[in-house]
Design brief:
Blueprint lengths: L6 E3 L5 E3 L6 H9 L8 H14 L4 H6 L1 H7 L5 H5 L3 H8 L8 H20 L3 H7 L21 H12 L7 H10 L22
Antiparallel strand pairs: 1-2
Length: 203
């Protein structure tokens, strides 16, 4: 039985952040990915790209199209995406499996090129750059949904750093959503089974 504001029991009766129980895709993403550390150039590029595509849409829309996105964007291989030309852009804009937004498609291609430049300029590449903005550990767990911010000083700084390195379509809110998705912050509510400190939950 769930207890506490913002929590709801999942199909197994254990408490989760309420948003996770509204659709099977949300449940799987909440339990297995959201708030868990993500490392590596490709996986980080994927999260940044998907968060940018989500802007103005439901995250559930993105989750349901995720495999189509992976196929369309060459598995989010930055080298391949950076090489996309006009024909690839037209292919993507004609693909009903993804979000067909020209500005976002072009941003993904631009950002792939930025990933390659960061690789040359930062010893640890995109991974080191992104994770350098992780806040200190030990932040109290949010007690209710209203305690979860839309952006933070760290996400503002991360967005600025990404833009300095050539990224586009990445503002402080998108940067913070990326930080949540990649486990730089753990915004599972207090009492949620997926909290890093929850007993018996593999991380």
């Amino acid at each position: 039985m769930a207890s506490g504001p913002g929590l709801r029991s999942g199909p197994d009766g254990r408490p989760r952040c309420a948003w996770a129980t509204s659709a099977p895709e949300y449940l799987a993403y909440h339990d297995r990915e959201w708030g868990r550390p993500v490392h590596g150039e490709g996986p980080l590029f994927e999260r940044i790209t998907l968060e940018a595509f989500q802007s103005g849409l439901s995250w559930l829309t993105i989750l349901r199209k995720r495999e189509a996105f992976r196929a369309a964007f060459a598995g989010f291989d930055p080298e391949r995406v950076a090489g996309f030309g006009p024909d690839d852009v037209q292919r993507l804009l004609a693909d009903p499996g993804i979000v067909r937004n020209r500005a976002k498609v072009l941003a993904a291609v631009t950002n792939a090129g930025a990933v390659l430049r960061i690789r040359e300029q930062v010893p640890g590449g995109l991974d080191e750059l992104v994770w350098s903005f992780a806040p200190p550990s030990g932040r109290p767990a949010p007690e209710r949904p209203g305690d979860v911010p839309a952006s933070t000083a760290q996400s503002v700084a991360l967005a600025k750093a990404l833009k300095r390195n050539g990224f586009v379509f990445v503002g402080p809110t998108t940067a913070y959503a990326t930080m949540q998705a990649c486990g730089l912050v753990d915004d599972h509510l207090s009492g949620c089974l997926a909290r890093a400190t929850a007993p018996g939950v593999p991380r």
